[in-house]
Amino acid sequence: MGSALHIRNDSPDHALVVRVSGEVDMTTAAQLERQLEQACAQAGPEAAVVVDLLDVSFLDAAGLGAMVRVQQRCHQHGHRLRVVASHRPVLRPLTLTGLDAVLEVVPSLADALHPEAD
């Protein structure tokens, strides 16, 4: 397999940002899901949970499924899940599956942190 999955959390501007790099596939999707679930549980009232996929080099169905499940859990906690993606290895699976219409996908971290600026 390719590069390992690396995850780092930050908390800027009323959001909890989960920065992901490497490959999100069947061997790493559970790790991502756990980290995102923890972020949803730890986020403050009305805070967004942002998953930054700008440094992800591969995303498969297991990773997509993890994000959809976490989106549902975040919604139950009153949080929005925003996905930052702007390059083909991540956007292509999102668009081919139609999940770009289900998940809140934005092209930059700035757009995720300040959606009202649009």
The percentage of residues in β strands lies in 25-35%
Q: If you compute it from the alpha carbons, what radius of gyration comes out, rounded to the nearest whole angstrom?
A: 13 Å
Alpha-beta classification: alpha/beta
* Straight-line N-to-C gap: 39 Å
Using the 3D structure, state the CATH architecture. Answer: 2-Layer Sandwich
Spatial strand arrangement across the major sheet: 1-2-3-4-5
Number of domains: 1
**Poorly predicted ranges:** none
Broad shape: globular
Helix content: 25-40%
Query: CATH H-level name... which superfamily?
Result: STAS domain
Mean pLDDT: 89
Major sheet attributes:
5 strands, mixed
CATH class: Alpha Beta
Helix-strand pattern: EEHEHEHEH
Total DSSP E strands: 5
Summarize the structure in words.
This protein has one domain (about 5-105): STAS domain (Transcription Regulator spoIIAA, 2-Layer Sandwich). About 40% of the residues lie in helices and about 30% in strands. The protein has helices at about 30-40, 60-75, 90-95, 110-115, and strands at about 5-10, 15-25, 50-60, 80-85, 105. Strands 1-2-3-4-5 form a 5-stranded mixed β-sheet. It starts with 5 loop residues before the first strand and ends in a 5-residue tail after the last helix.
What descriptors fit this protein?
single chain, Transcription Regulator spoIIAA, 5-stranded mixed β-sheet, 5 strands, 38% helix, Anti-sigma_ant, Anti-sigma factor antagonist
